[in-house]
């Protein structure tokens, strides 16, 4: 088998349908482009049709297939409507990315209950509901599938100033491993991609000059990650061929941040 055909047999996603919740954002948008580039039909899910269109145009220009569906990640009813819409239009669902998220950098004693509840709703409840709605479909279908939840380095190593975000992401990691164990007999794989420091819309306000200096001191690669650098990890976890025996994995993409001690 020629080298290119071998790689395509491992990582190609022709005939697959991927639902990317949070796909209008920077990181999940890049992941969506990667999935489309590998042959999957991609459904971008978010609240901003204008942001989605820019990503859809990039995917189309590269020869990929994608469409947008507006949905609120914290609403079970809207996620169920999303599931039904995808099945009606695309006929199947094989890959689900739960990537909606919000952040804050509020001092601990100043965190208002409303802020805490908002972050828990999006970061934890959104992933919980996404797994519940789409996991039920995949388990009952009986043909396997891949769920990729977006975790965080702050769930592995607690980071200062992002208390609620860190707590919710830790819960996402725990939930993902629990579900990986539950659904492995049905061939449904659940994994976590753990980005290190990638400048994105939700964390730009947190990246103050002193914080950037500390991050660089702790990152052997001595730079921030770029969104496209999450694509390889995404394709590995999405592929039933390349990732067939990978479940319950927390796949870190961080330029060596977690390996640095002193």
From TrEMBL:
Positions of transmembrane segments: none
**Which of UniProt's keywords are assigned here?**
Oxidoreductase
Annotated InterPro entries: NAD(P)-bd_dom_sf (IPR036291), Sc_DH/Rdtase_CS (IPR020904), SDR_fam (IPR002347)
The GO terms describing molecular function are:
oxidoreductase activity, acting on the CH-OH group of donors, NAD or NADP as acceptor
PANTHER family xref list: 3-OXOACYL-[ACYL-CARRIER-PROTEIN] REDUCTASE FABG (PTHR42760:SF115), SHORT-CHAIN DEHYDROGENASES/REDUCTASES FAMILY MEMBER (PTHR42760)
Q: Which family does it belong to?
A: Belongs to the short-chain dehydrogenases/reductases (SDR) family.
What protein does this entry describe?
Answer: Gluconate 5-dehydrogenase
Q: What is the lineage of its organism?
A: Bacteria, Pseudomonadati, Verrucomicrobiota, Opitutia, Opitutales
């Amino acid at each position: 088998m020629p080298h290119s055909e071998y790689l395509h047999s491992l990582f190609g996603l022709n005939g697959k349908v991927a639902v990317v919740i949070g796909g209008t954002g920077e990181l999940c948008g890049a992941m969506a482009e990667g999935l489309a580039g590998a042959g999957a039909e991609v459904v971008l899910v978010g609240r901003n049709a204008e942001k989605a269109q820019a990503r859809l145009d990039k995917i189309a220009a590269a020869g990929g297939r994608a469409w947008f569906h507006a949905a609120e990640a914290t609403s079970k009813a809207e996620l169920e409507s999303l599931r039904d819409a995808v099945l009606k239009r695309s006929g199947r669902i094989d890959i689900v990315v739960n990537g909606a998220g919000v952040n804050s950098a509020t001092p601990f004693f100043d965190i208002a209950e409303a802020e805490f509840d908002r972050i828990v709703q999006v970061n934890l409840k959104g992933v919980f509901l996404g797994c519940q709605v789409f996991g039920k479909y995949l388990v009952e279908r009986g043909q396997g599938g891949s769920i990729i939840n977006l975790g965080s380095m702050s769930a592995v190593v607690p980071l200062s100033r992002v208390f609620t975000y860190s707590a919710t992401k830790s819960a996402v990691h725990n939930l993902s491993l629990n579900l990986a164990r539950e659904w492995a007999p049905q061939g449904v794989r659940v994994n976590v991609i753990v980005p290190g420091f990638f400048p994105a819309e939700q964390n730009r306000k947190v990246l103050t000059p002193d914080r950037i200096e500390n991050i660089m001191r702790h990152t052997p690669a001595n730079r921030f990650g770029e969104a496209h650098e999450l694509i390889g990890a995404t394709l590995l976890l999405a592929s039933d061929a390349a990732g067939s025996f990978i479940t319950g994995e927390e796949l870190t993409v961080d330029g060596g941040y977690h390996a640095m001690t002193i």
